[in-house]
């Protein structure tokens, strides 16, 4: 009985490890796709149930930034459509600027991505930063 039970435990562990490896491969593929085309990368991760289609989940994914190109993060956050703007605000909410002076807070914020080149995108991002900074430092 004990041997059969440990065999079942080993099989279930093997299946679990295999699923985990597959998931890690898909996440790596999603990161690669994101770095080439941010929207397609996010779409891939959502379609494969690796990321929930919520502003908060996507913002958390971008904030962690593991293996993500900072320029691609900036491009995604700078997009003009409503959903991306909500992701931007959720992303900024993940930053804690309390008791930092303006320069320190700006450095921390700009360390998490690269600003895109378009003035309107930069303006949207800096507006979101300013709101969060004032919220953290009334």
What does this structure look like?
It comes from Ceuthmochares aereus. Residues 16-138 form the SEC7 domain. One of its GO terms (molecular function) is guanyl-nucleotide exchange factor activity. The chain is mainly alpha-helical and 138 residues long. The chain has a single domain, classed as Orthogonal Bundle (Annexin V, domain 1), CATH 1.10.220. It has helices spanning 2-36, 38-47, 55-64, 70-78, 82-93, 102-111, 119-136. The model has no long low-confidence stretch (mean pLDDT 89).
Short description:
Residues 16-138 form the SEC7 domain. This protein has 138 residues and is mainly α.
Could you name the key traits of this structure?
138 residues, Annexin V, domain 1, Sec7_dom_sf
- As residue ranges, the low-confidence spans are none
Could you spell the SSE succession in H and E letters? HHHHHHH
Enumerate how many helices there are, as a single number: 7
Rough outline:
elongated
**Which second-level CATH architecture applies?**
Orthogonal Bundle
Q: Major sheet: size, sense and barrel closure?
A: none
Kindly state the number of beta strands. 0
Instruction: Give the C-alpha Rg.
Output: 19 Å
SS content category: mainly alpha
